[in-house]
Structures are given as C-alpha cells and as structure tokens.
Amino acid sequence: MISPLANSAAAADDMPRSIVGRLLFWFLVIALVPCAILTATTARIATRSLESSVRINLVQIASARATVLESYATERIQDASALSRSPEFIRLLRDAASNKVAPSPGTFDVSAELRQFADGVASSLDSSQMILFDDAGRIILSIDDTFPTGASVTSGGLASSELAAGFSRARTLLQADMCSFQPYGVSARPLAFAVCPILDAGRVLGVLALGFGPERVWGVLSDLTGLGVTGEIVVGQRSGDEILVTAPVRSTPDAAFRLRIPHPDHGIGSQRAANGERGDGIVTDYRNQKVVAAWCYLPSYRWGMNVKQNASEAYALVNFQRKMIIWLSLATIAGVTLAAFVVARTISTPIRTAVNVARQVAAGDLRATVTGSSDDETGALLAAIRTMTNDLRGLIGRIQKSSVALISTATAMQATSAEQQQVIADYGASTSQAVAAVKQISVTSQELVRT
Predict the structure, then answer these.
(1) Are 133 and 153 in contact (CB under 8 A)?
(2) Nearest Cα to 58, choosing from 240, 208, 275, 282?
(3) What is the pLDDT at residue 292?
(4) Are the CB atoms for 179 and 166 separated by under 8 Å?
(5) CA separation (Å) from 330 to 32, 42, 316, 337?
(6) What CA–CA distance (Å, rounded) separates 362 from 55?
C-alpha cells in the first residue's frame, strides 16, 4: 500500500507544474502584460513630451535673445541713419572734400563746437565712438584718440578690420549696415559700428560710423534664466576653420575674442550656427560634453548663437522618470507575483488535500480526514470529499456488520445441519432395526407355518 507521505510528496511535485504554475503564469501574464504596455506607452509619451519641452524652451530662449540683439542692432543702425542726415556733418564733409591734400594724422582741424556736438550726440545715444570718414576713407572726426583724425581706414592697421569692411559696404551699397565686434586700439576693447553713407544731392560725401561697446550685448547673453546651473549661451564668428568666441561664457568668463573652437566635431551647435543654420538637438559642445542645444544665426552681428544645457541636467527629470518607472515596475512585478502565488496557493492547497485523500482512499486507506472549510468552490470540493470518505467508512462498517451476521448465520446453519445429520443417522439406525425385526418376524412366521 502506498504511504500517505509518498502520496503527499508526489502531489507536491505535480501541483506546481499543473495548478500553481499555470495559475501563477497566467495571472502574471494577464496582470503584467497590459500594465507593461500601458506603462511603456505612457513613459514613451511622457519622455517625448519632456524632451520636446526642453528643446522648445531652448529654442524660445534662443529666439528671445536673438530678437533682443537684432532689435538693438536695428536701433543702432537707425541712429546712424538719422545722424547721417545731420547738416553739420554734411558741411564738414564738404569742407573736407575741398581740401585736395590729405592731412596727416591728427592735423585735421575740427571746430570745438562740432566736436562738442559729436560728443553730446554719442553720449545721448549711449555710443562709445563716433567716426566720420570722407569718401576716400580718411577720418575727419573722431571723439577719442583710438581712431586719430587723418588716419585712413583703407590702409594701415585698419585696412583689414571689420570697420574697413563696413565702410566699403556702406559706400558701395549706399545703405546702412553694421560691422561685427572686433578689438581696437591699445586697450583691445571690442567695438561694433553702425555705418551709414552720408549723401549730398545723390553724391557720397563720406560715411558715418557710430560705435558701441559689447556691454549691452553681453548683458543680454549673460541672462541665463531658464538654463539651470549648466546652461550657457555661446556666440562666435567664423575665423578660417575655427569659431572665435565673441562673448564671455559661464564656464570661461574671459573667453571673449580669446577662446577658439578648432575642431568641427567639437562645438557642433556653434559650428552650424556660424554657418547660418538654425536647429536644435543633442550635440557635443566645445568641452566635448553632451548637451541639448538650440542654435541660430545673428545676421546683424555675423555671429552664430548656440543656447545649450548639459544633457544630464536638461533631461534630469526624464532620467528620474525612467528610474522611477523601473523601480515601480520591479515593485509591481514583485507584488503581483506574491499576490499570484498566494491566490494560487489558496486554490491549489484544497485541491492538493483532495488529491491526497482520493489517493489514500484509492489505496484502501479510509482513515484520511479532511480539514478546513470555506465558502467557495474549493470548500465545496473538500466538503464533498469529506462526505464521501465518511459515507465510505459508514458503508464499510455496515458491510462488516453484515459479514459478521452472515458468518453467525452460516455457523448456526452448520450446527443445524449437523443435528439434522445426527437425526437422520439415528433414523437410519431405527429403520435398520425395524427391518431386522421384520426379517425376524418373517422367519418366525415361516417357521410357524411349517410347524
């Protein structure tokens, strides 16, 4: 007979492969697959939304700074255009045109009243410099000695400057323009000039150059609101194969007109901006760090502007969200697995008990008892098994009693049969005696007849 322990061990080995395993597997599939799909979809949408918001923020910052800078440049050009129609400047250039011999530097005579007028106008316009050129490029008027009167913008040290290029464009195109920032003089202070031709009856008398320093421009670029702790705005102009940074940056405060970005693989955003492109994306900056950037071109300054922020900071919320999703997913899987295991055990344990009892009964052991009760189907199954075993035990008891009664009856019948056999034997003996007596009587009768 198979022992109950062996049956229990066999059932324990079989059930996880059948009931518990299946319930656990399908419970996890039904619970986790839709949850995983929903979580992945939601996370993807949220990640794209966050990434898009980061890029939109950078694009908006770049657009706002570009608008302010271009508006400032337009104002400077408009100021130069308005001053170019000044009668005092036109009269001065007429006098210079009548002077057939070019004066040597510092010898051109300008009235104190006109110089005072120029100083006042430059001060009212918040300009650092005002230069008046004749049509040949000679400096007729300058408010300081950085650009001495009599010097020529078409020769000497100024011939290769941005100011010389601006003078040439204004005189040739007959329209106001702006020169890029460039260091001038001994102090190497960066200056930009709004240049405008001075016309008299349709004839070019000269060019007015209204200079201003970089303080206002750098102030706009130093506003890093919305760029966190790693964001910065890098502006630069192309210088051969390199990008010359033209304003201080957060990581390098003295970078203006000193820092160069040499390799095209570094500072990709600045390289593209200096090429006149507009865009945004994840690129490598001049420090060889991964950044999120938005770049555009500033036509008035001939600069490329790159607004950037370290990707680790810009996408910190995205990375945090991903980590939280991973941890929540692991916690969900653990919780669902535990719940599924508990539920599977509540179903499989009664079934295992029923199987063990059925195997014991099948092996002929009716001593198995069923414990536990519940109101569900498994409880009904155990109750039915318990009723079945109790009924079987009762039936076997009744059968045993009937067997005893049958044995007693058989024994009594055997005793009665023996008594009947004895009676029959006694009856046979009596019959034999009667036959013998009859024979004797017959013999006696024959003897009497013969006598």
Answers:
(1) yes
(2) 282
(3) 92
(4) yes
(5) 11, 17, 21, 10
(6) 74
pLDDT 10s digits, 111-161:
566 777 778 877 788 888 888 898 888 888 888 888 888 888 988 888 889
Specify the amino acid at residue 8.
S
Contact 301, 181 (CB under 8 A): yes
Report the distance separating Cα 231 and Cα 226, nearest Å: 8
Residue with tokens 């930009």: 192
Residue 187, number of CB atoms within 10 A of its CB = 8
> Are 119 and 162 within 8 A, CB to CB?
no
Rounded alpha-carbon distances, angstroms, from residue 209 to 10, 100, 114: 101, 23, 16
Each residue's pLDDT tens digit, 255-286: 888 999 886 777 888 889 988 999 998 888 88
Which residues, 6 or more positions from 129, have their beta carbon under 8 angstroms from its beta carbon? Answer: 122, 142, 143, 144, 146, 147, 191, 193, 209, 210, 211, 212
Q: What is the spatial distance between Cα 338 and Cα 86, in angstroms, rounded to a whole number?
A: 88
Question: Which residues, other chains included, contact 347 with Cβ-Cβ below 8 Å and sequence gap of 6+?
Answer: 19, 23, 378
- Does the predicted TM-score (pTM) go above 0.90? no
Instruction: Identify the CA nearest to 216 among candidates 59, 63, 76, 64.
Output: 76
> Domains in the chain and their CATH numbers?
84-213 (3.30.450.20), 224-314 (3.30.450)
> 3-state DSSP call for residue 324?
helix
For 37-74, letters b (16+ CB in 10 Å) and e give eeeeeebeeebeebbeebbebbbebbeebbebbeebbe
DSSP structure string for 211-251: EE-SHHHHHHHT--TTSTTT-EEEEEEEETTEEEE-S--SS
Q: Is 239 left (phi over 0), alpha (psi -120 to 50) or beta?
A: beta
Q: Which of 30, 29, 31, 23 lies closest to 348, judged by CA?
A: 23
Phi, psi of 149 (to 5 degrees): -65, 145
Q: Which helix (H) or strand (E) holds 203?
A: strand 203-212
Give the residue from 134, 130, 172 showing the smallest Cα distance to 153: 134
The token pair at 37 is 């799909």
Three-state DSSP class for residue 111: coil
- Residue indicated by tokens 């045109």: 97
How do residues 356-372 score in pLDDT, each as one tens digit?
Answer: 777 877 777 767 676 66
Closest CA to 87 of 59, 121, 48, 40: 121
Q: Cα(229)–Cα(313) distance, rounded to whole angstroms?
A: 8
